[in-house]
Every structure is written in structure tokens, then in C-alpha cells.
Amino acid sequence: MQVTKTTTLGETVALNEPLAPASSQQHGKVQVSHGTGRRWPLSRWLTLLTFAVLLALPVLLAVLDNSFLLTLVSRCMIYGIAAISLNLILGYGGMLSLGHAAFFGIGAYVVGITAQNFMYGTALMEWPFELAASNDAIVVWPVAILLSALAALLIGAISLRTSGVYFLMLTLAFAQMIYFIFVSLDQYGGDDGMNLMSRNTLLGLDLDNDLTFYYVCFGCLLLIYLLVQRLIAARFGMVLRGCKQNEQRMQAMGFPTYRYRLMAFALAGAGAGLAGALIGNQMEYVSPNLLHWKMSGELMVMVLLGGLGTLLGPLWGAFAFLLVEDVLSGITEHWMLFFGPFLILVVLFAKGGIYGYLIRKEQP
Amino acid sequence: MPKQSYVSNPSRFSAVSQRLLPGLCGAALVLAGSSLLSTAVAAEPVKLGMITTLSTKGGYLGEDMRDGFKLAVEQGKGSLGGIPVELLVDDDAGDPQKGKQIAERMIKSDKIDMMTGIMFSNVAMAVVPSVLKDGLFFVGANAAPAPFAGKMCNPNYFNVAYQNDNMHEAMGEYLTQQGYKSVFLIAPNYPAGKDALTGFKRFYKGEVKQEVYTKLDQSDYAALISQIRADKPDAVFYFLPGGLGVNFLKQYDQAGMKSEVKIFGPGFSFDRRLLGAVGAAAEGVMNSSEWNDDLPAAGNAEFVQAFHTAYGRYPTLYAAQAYDAANLIGSALKQVDGKLDDKDAVRKALMAADFSSVRGSFRFNTNHHPIQDIYVRQVIKLDDGSYANKTVSKVFEQHQDAYVSECKL
Amino acid sequence: MSTTDTPWALEARGLVKRYGQLVATDHADICVAKGELHALIGPNGAGKTTLIKQLSGEIFSDQGQIRFHGADITRMPIHQRAHRGLVRSYQITSIFEEMSVIDNVALAVQALQGHSFRFWRPAASDARLREPAFRCLERVRLAHRASVLAGNLAHGEKRQLEIAMTLAAEPSMLLLDEPMAGMSPEESGQMVELLQALKGEHSILLVEHDMDAVFSLSDRLTVLVYGKPLVTGTAAEIRNDQRVREAYLGEEAA
Amino acid sequence: MILFLEQLLNGLQFGVMLFLMASGLTLVFGIMNLVNLAHGSFYMIGAFVAAAIVASSGSFVLGLLGALLATAILGIAVEMLIFRVLYKRDHLEQILATFGIILFCNEAVQVIWGKTPLFFDIPAALSGSVELLPGLNYPLFRIGVIGVGIVVAIFLYLLINRTRLGMAIRAGSSDREMIAALGVNIKLLYSLVFGLGALLAALAGVMAGPILSVESGMGESILILTFVVIVIGGIGSIKGALAGAVLVGVVDTLGRAFMPELMRMALSGGAADSMGAALSSILIYLLMAVVLIFRPRGLFNASH
């Protein structure tokens, strides 16, 4: 059999599914074991299909004159971003965080607070230096990402001293603290939340237009997806996955694992911050609900529903969760009576989540 | 459209299928065809969207809201004010995000003509501005946070129920009238809780011993009750909605405090469904409300009877408010003959409030919140062993809210 | 590697580790010369694994001192010891089962090459990782299995992989914890061959139950009993030592 | 001083309630390594069943027994149907599945018993209060709750330290393989322990029913606190659950009682009330964080 020359692109895409036998990661001398088989694994087809559908969907919806679905899918993509970022630590890093909503919420509140200050023309900060509020996404969103990452860095630095369920509870604890702080912040609406009178602008783009906003979300999703894909396949990702499988061994090999895990935690926080900034804009409303542990739980459920430790799984999970919830709650007010067992059935029978189940079936 | 169109489920089914079908590309033509068809039919009913809370702890509130509204539609045989209506109801689960999503669906996909309902202030804060932004009318049937009555008031926003502070103001006034020298105040640590106590203090002239804000999901109040015992106020006023109030009142009674320090609250904690859960602990407690089932207003007794016949339970305040909301909408629809395109005409018709409220006298203030009487009621035990409220006196006559001056309408 | 003129690669003096009442190692001394294959033997529960953990840095000693090529590493964390060239392999196979064989070794190579805060370039096409990793696999005769999922390897192959990963760290000294445990005689034979080849290139501290292998491979042996070194000497010396016979070989033989 | 004592008693009583929940959860977690979010649902179901039986029969004792029996049977049934499969899965999948159970149970009680909170009153024999010290009146029922907690603690102590089942439980939480070696039927042991956990949760629910509002979703607020308790105490340790429960109960209660006053010394009225409320809400989370920072595996860790 001949040695197949795989392009760089080919290899990265093949790395899509780290749990798959990494048969395409050949060294020059290694023979290709599946050269005669399908060149493109199912995962790659599904990835292409997913993004193609998302890209083309607005056209179809325009024909159907259904602008609601446009906003619903925007929301699904935003939750998808949050879930993908959570999966980075949950699926690849093996860190059971039940505090991801904190970073999601912080991102949203950055948008909310700057919007409120912008609306009333007040300064964001008067001390130590005066900082005027901006309404441009190019300023506000990076701040949201940065602050979320910073919060994640702090929370992670403490929580990562423990592991397993103890880690889970510590992240939960910190998220709940932030939740209660926002509940009692009267100037930002407390439990009632705060209304944004309009969305941010993005370099002159009008995000109030749902179609524009849809494609901005799509762009962010694609960006995050690609970043995570690269990250997972890069050296950093190898270390992260190694830490999940056997942290002690990683240390024995000479990796200061704490630093890598903390970095991953902060990066995941940053991703959630972007998702938060987007959801704040999408809803034009932010409230402490975004920070509640139930939101962390829902994000976790999305990741698991789609497929833990797969690139596309969390996105599918977000879609499945939100769409099933929306459809069921439309059919009956007792929708939870069916949604609960649905989750149980997924765990019992679709091991590895919906997407994980599909791509795993393919493998020998 | 069939007569039974106000039943939420069948119509929701069609909405669901509309959302699912796009997945199947071939359905596009079918849908396009059906939408053409629907514009051709002349007597298309007016579509009303109701967002309320049907699941989670607050579920019973929304259930009463929905049923009160449905009763009015049923009495009109599927129409309000003689105009056929289709009522879509959906559950926000008390979650603002979810409420917002439903609102988007109702507006963009179901293409409703007017929105009503909303149980909780935070859901209202999330949902209402975008509804108004899309040019729809919103007729609130319960939640009425301060901004909507003041700074954020809007020509297309009406609230039939009250302004959030009203009941607390009435209790403050009543305690002043009755000569209670000092009071201990309790509310959850969230905006509605703070507004409540602010409202109370607006009319209370005595000394406020302590103002305690409890954790939002606080369920055990033993520590608080001990504090009250130590503080020895003349009276306690508490605003703890739903189950929180049940917890507090039961524990207050169990601690033997009811005979020591008299307790007062807004009517929210004393509707007949909650009284069933609290039982004897509530007996004799004074509370404030703009409606009660024994009010002599024209049509009130009939409403209570009809509600009981239809659903097998007695209506609560929420049902009465929703019933009024439905009749208000009916009066406006009748006025404009079901044509909602002329916004000014609709607004004028709503503003006129030309309907018979089960509360009695009712009119809108310039900020589209009611000017109405507010009563003090007392919890009594009925012969059948259940508990109900008896109207004791009128605290406020033609009361208006405190924010109307901030509204530039 | 080291500029100091000590003859010892590893020099541990008076190591103590207590778990509550239990004294796992009790003033243990052990010295491994540069390039030597030194075996550590003793009955079950003698504290061999604890001692290995103390030396590798997984646990810190309550008392005592450890020097590596002359430098004091007593309080040095495990990953820094690894960077200095002191690397252990594991008794219970401790590979990354969800990664391919080559990835396992590449990860170990990666540990050598500075920090891994590299987020962009795919590790799988990085020749700086792949080539050394492949060479290590060749050394342990596992190159033909490079792209197999590590979890799917046979038991003996996993042990080979384990050694390859240890080698990838380019250690000056190996701490090998029972590399032949659970192996078939055939697999053991291969492992002995492999260790024979490694001997001389690396200083090795070997913990092993397979006495034939130990006696054929090691330059010197230390017998550990109840956390204390009983005696240290060449294979012949140990074989003839009365105390060892009583404490250890007698039991084993029976 | 009297007020402080009374608040301490309140904290103790709250702690006892938490202990009833935590002891079951920590056993299930420690022995089966199962993260059971649905533990709060057993608490809720216990309260609902008891309320329903009391309402129809008028007997509190009957309600108590009925609730314990029903919940234990339900617990064992759910264990056999769903949890058995979950033991082998990782924690995340357990969380997902048990989250599903929560949703189902919360809705199911609304379908069965309606949306209004149920009426559940204190039994006549335990109503009213007693004077413990001059000036310190305390509700009899709450004293009863503390009593029940002490009885359960003693019962669990004897069960675990003096019985064969207890020996298996102890072995199970430290060394899983050892149970098999002891010749214990693991399936049966797991079902029994799970049933016991459900029963204790239901007991907590019945104790809470007359004090709290019996409503859908009542399990979640206590669930999080229960997890805080077992994590502080150390997973798998009954002793830890007891210590953690009392600690959390007392800290939470005293925080709520005195934090606003402390804040008022430093800040002005409105801000102090608001800050005090916020701080007392986060106090137990702070407590947990501090404990875990210094003892990453809790106060009493059963397994090493």
C-alpha cells in the first residue's frame, strides 16, 4: 500500500474526533491502514453539512417568511458556542464544571451594563480614570470575553486545587456567589434584570436586523469551532486530553498540569463570555437567570446530549435541547413530563450523546 | 376557524408544525399555499397571545390567569366583544429568557395581533419592551413593575391589574389608620420586594423597626421569627409571594406569634388557593386587594359562580384580573369592529375601558394603569371548613400609583 | 549531564514515609551509580512502590534527602525531576488508552520540548514530535502498531509502550516499576532483551518480581524488607546472603 | 443572649433537616459512586405523599409511615430500572439522567396533585411551643425534628458499626472489591442502601412538610445545600454529613440573623440591608470554598 500524503487541512479535519483511532496521524513511515476505505469519515460530512445548512438556512426561511425560526436558530448557535466552550474543559479536559453559567452571565452583563451607561450617557467608571461607555461590539465584546476569562482564571485558580465532584461543587459555589451578587445589585435591575434598548453596533453593521445578527452569530460560531478544533489538535490540546485521561502520568512526564488546565478553564470562560455577549444582544435583555446553576446544568446537558468530547456534539446538543424544549412546550404545558424521560433515554440508550452515537457507530 | 379555537393546544399544534416543516423542503409550497388561503378568508379571528407561568412553583398563578381569560372567551362563545378570537397560551416557566423566546415565536411565527398575560415582573421586563417595539399592543394582566408606569410608559402598554406597589401602599395606609406605632417589614431581596416595602412606607407614618430582605429562595424563617419576637414591634408586614408566604405564615403561627404580634400582608398571599395550603394559620389575618369574591360589583357574583362551574374551584385575584383583561380587550375590539390596523383607534378604545369590571369602578390613568378602589379583607373560615376572604373596608378610593408623574404620556 | 564528580546518578539517604501508624519506608538508603542497572527487590508490602514514588517525586518524604547527579531534589516536584532526566514507568499500566500509540509517545516527547502553550499547529503533523516518538517506538519494537488505539494493545504491548514513553523523555535515569508484571514468558523474554539493550545508556532502578530476569540483568541489587534496605550487593552476593535467604528468598521459594 | 441561643437552636434544627437529606445522599454517593441529583425529588415526593395521606385520613403517623414506605419502594424501583445502569457510567451521565428525573418528578406531582401547594399541618400533639428557658419559647414540632434527627443519627451509627449490613456499607465506601470478597450480594446491597437513602430523604420531606410549603420544585433548594453539606463533610462519611449539616445549618442561620446587623454597623441603612442579604446568601458557599481550599476532600473523608 502506498503512503498517502495528507494535507495539513486533511489532517486537522481528521483530528475532528479525538476519540477515533487516530489512524490518519501517520508518521511518514507508517502505512495508511484505511487507505482503501472511505477517505472522509462521517464526522467530516456531518460537520460540513451542519455548517452548510446553517449558512443556507436564512435563504430558505426568507422563502418561507418565517423570521421566528431565524431568531430561534440564532439562539441555538449562541448556546452552541457556550456549549462548545464548556466542552473544552468538560469533554477534553475532564473538568466537571457546574459554574459555566457564571462566565456566560458575566459576558451578558458586560453588554447590559455598558448599554445602560451608554443609554444614559454616564461613564462606566469614574475612578481611577474616566471611561466612557461604548456601544460598538468591537469594543464591548472583547471586554466581555476578557472579563469572563479573568473571572474564570480566578475561579479556576482556586477550584483546580481539587478535582472530581469537589471541583464541581467549588465551581458551583463561586457561580452561585456571583449570581447572588447580581441579584442584589439594584442599579443593574437585580432579579428583574435589565433591558437593552437596542443591540450593539458592529463596525457600522446594524445588529438590530435579525438577518445580520444571524450571520454575526454564525461567524462567531464558525470562529469558535475552528479555534477549538485547532486548539484540540495542537500541542496544547494533546496535553489537555492527556490530563483528562491520566493527570498523574502527565505530571510524571514533566507537564505542570495545573497551568494547562487553568489555561483551558480560562479559555473556556472566554468562549462563554462571547456567547454571553451574544445572548445579551440577541435577547436585548440580561438577568441573573443567566448565571443561575440551572443554566450551568442546562449547558452541561447540552454537551452531553450532543456528545461529550466531540467537536460538533455540543452544537448539536444545544440545538436538540432548545428545539425539543420549544416543540414540546408548544404541544403541552406538561412538557417536562416528556423532556425528563427524553434525557434519561438518551443517557441509557444513546451512549455518547446523539452526535457521539452517530459517529461512533461508524467506527469498527 | 372552529368555534373551539381558543383552546390552546390545537392551534399550538399548527404553530409547531409550521416550525417543523421547513426542515422538509418540499413543504414550502404547501405552506405558501396555506398562507395565501388564510389571507383570502375574511372572518379571520383576532389572534391573542398569552404568556403566563404554568409550570414550576408559580404554575397555579398562571393557571388561574389562563382560566380567567378563557372563561370570558367561552362566555362569548369563542369571541370577545362579538369579535371571534383565537387565544394562544404558552408557559414561560417563570424564566425571562423563555418568555422572550415565546414572545418572539408568537409575534413572528404565529403572527398574533395583541399580547396579554405575564405573571412575573422579571418576565415582563424581558418581554414587554420588545413586544412594544414590534408595534403590538400589550395588555398586562398581573405584573406591573414600576418602570412601565413611569419612565418607560408606552402608548401601547396597558395594565388592567394594578401597579405593583398598590396593595402594599394600601396596607401602609391601613396600618397608619389603625394606629400601629411600629412595624417590622419583610420582603425578598429582589426589586419587587424592595418596591413593595417602598410602597408600604410611602403611606405608613409610624416607626419602621426593621426592614429585612430575605434570600430569594429562603424557605425556613425561624431565624427571622426569633428576631421579630426579640424586636417586639406592634405589627408585621410581609410580602413573600407564593410558597414563600405559605412557609412564613405557617412558621409564624407555629411559633405562637400570631397572637403576640399582628401580621399583615398584601392579598397575593391570601388567595383562596393558597389559603387551602396555609389553613388555620391564616385565619383572621388582614390583607389588601383590589378585588374580592364578595365585592358587590355588577357581574362579580356571576363571574365567581361561572368560574366555579367551569373549573371546579373558586377564582383568585389573578383569574379576576385576567377576566377583566379579556373583557377590556373585548370592549376595544367591539369599538373598532375587530380592525386592529388603526392603532390610534385601538388605543382610544382601550383607554376608554368601556367594560364592566368585576372590581366595580375602573378607569385608566394617563400612564395606562388603573385608578381604582383598594380594600382590606380578612381571612375567615367558612361553614364547609375552607377559608376565604371577607371584605372589611375600603382603604383607598380612586387610588392612583406613585409613578404617573414620571410618565410623559 | 551533570558537572559534579559524584559517581552516583541517584543518591537517597534516610528516606522515611509514614501513613499514620504505618511506616512505609524506614530510613531507606539507596544509591544508583551512573550507567548501572540496580534492582530493588523485596517481599510484597516491603515498601518498594512507596520508595519509587518518593524518588520520582509523586510523594514527598517525611525525612531524608535525595540527590540526583549531585543536586538536591528532595523537595522538587515531579515534573521538574522529569525535566532533569529522572523518569519513572508505572507498575499498573498507565498509558493514555484513548489515544493512539504514537500519540502516547509524542506526548512524552512534547514534555521535553519546553512549554506546550501552543494552540495552533496540529501536533499530529509536527515532525519534531513525530520523528523522535517513532524512533522510541522502534526501539521497543512497537513501530508497526503506531496508529492503533493504545487501549486496544495487548498487555505486553502496553508495557512496551510504557517503556517507549519513558524513553521518550530522554532520561538519564529510569525508575522502572515491575515492567514484566502479568507478562507471558514469551513477552518477558522480549522485555529482558529490551532492558539489556537499554542498560548502559541509562542508569536504571528496576523493581521486579521476576527473579530470573532480575538476577540476569542487574549489576547490583538492594533487598528491601519492612521499608528498610536489608542488604545491597551483586547478584552473587545477594544469592549467598543468609539474611536474604531467611527474609525473602526462603518465602518466595516456598 | 436569649436571641442568640434561640438562633443557635434554629440553626441546629435546620442542620438536622439537612442531615436527614445528606446522610442518604452521602451513602449513595460514597458506596455506589453515584451523583444523584434526584435525591431532592424523594424529599418532595415524601412530603406530597404524606400530605395527601394526612389530608384523607387525618392521621399524621399514617402519613409518615405511608410516605416512608412509598418513597422507599419508589426508590428501590427507580434504582432497579435506571440507576443500576448508571453505576457504571461516569458522573456526567449520572447528572444528565438524574436531572431528567427531577424534571419528570416536578411535573408529575403537579399533574397528580395540582398546581397549588398542598395543605400539611403540624399534628395536634406537637403543636404549640414550650418554654425551654425563661423567655425562650420554642415550637414543639421543631424540637421534635431535632429529636428525630438525633434518633436517626444514633440509628445510622448502630447500623453502620454494629450490623453485618453496616460492615458491608463500610467496606463498600472504602474498597469496592472487598464487598464482593465478603460474599455480599452487591445488587441487593445497592438496592437496600438506595432505598434507605430515599427513605431518609422522605423522612426529611415529611418533617419539612408542616413547616414549609409542599409544592413542586421544593426539592431543589435543599438539594444544593445537601450537596454543600456532603462535600464539606467528605463524601461517603456519615460522620462528615452530620458535622457538615450542623455547620451549614448554624452558619447559614446565624448569618441570616446577624449579618444585616453587622453590616449596619459599617454601612448606612438601605445599602446595609441589601449587602447583608447578599452576603448571608453566599455565606455557605464561602464556607464550602474555604473548607475545600484547606481540605480538598472535605472534613471527614471516608475513602483515602
From TrEMBL, chain A:
Keyword field contains Nucleotide-binding: no
Membrane-topology annotation of the record: Multi-pass membrane protein
Gene Ontology CC terms: plasma membrane
Swiss-Prot/TrEMBL keywords: Cell membrane, Membrane, Transmembrane, Transmembrane helix
Protein localization: Cell membrane
Full protein name: Branched-chain amino acid ABC transporter permease
UniProt entry tagged with the keyword Membrane: yes
One term of GO molecular function: branched-chain amino acid transmembrane transporter activity
Residue intervals passing through the bilayer: 45-63, 69-89, 101-119, 139-158, 165-185, 213-237, 258-279, 299-324, 336-358
Automatic annotation (TrEMBL), chain C:
Nucleotide-binding as UniProt keyword: yes
Pfam families: ABC_tran, BCA_ABC_TP_C
Single annotated GO MF: ATP binding
InterPro entries: AAA+_ATPase, ABC_AA/LPS_Transport, ABC_transporter-like_ATP-bd, BCA_ABC_TP_C, P-loop_NTPase
Keyword list, A-Z: ATP-binding, Nucleotide-binding, Transport
Domain ABC transporter intervals: 10-251
GO CC, any one term: plasma membrane
PANTHER family linked: ABC TRANSPORTER ATP-BINDING PROTEIN (PTHR45772:SF2), CONSERVED COMPONENT OF ABC TRANSPORTER FOR NATURAL AMINO ACIDS-RELATED (PTHR45772)
This protein's name: ABC transporter ATP-binding protein
UniProtKB/TrEMBL annotation, chain D:
Keyword Oxidoreductase included in the entry's annotation: no
Key word Coiled coil present: no
Pfam families: BPD_transp_2
Cell location: Cell membrane
Membrane topology of the entry: Multi-pass membrane protein
Any GO BP annotation: amino acid transport
Domain of life: Bacteria
Keywords tagged on the record: Amino-acid transport, Cell membrane, Membrane, Transmembrane, Transmembrane helix, Transport
One GO term describing the cellular component: plasma membrane
Residue ranges of the TM segments: 12-35, 42-62, 68-87, 94-113, 140-160, 188-212, 224-251, 272-294
Any one GO molecular function term: transmembrane transporter activity
Protein family membership: Belongs to the binding-protein-dependent transport system permease family. LivHM subfamily.
Descriptive protein name: Branched-chain amino acid ABC transporter permease
Organism, as annotated: Proteobacteria bacterium 228
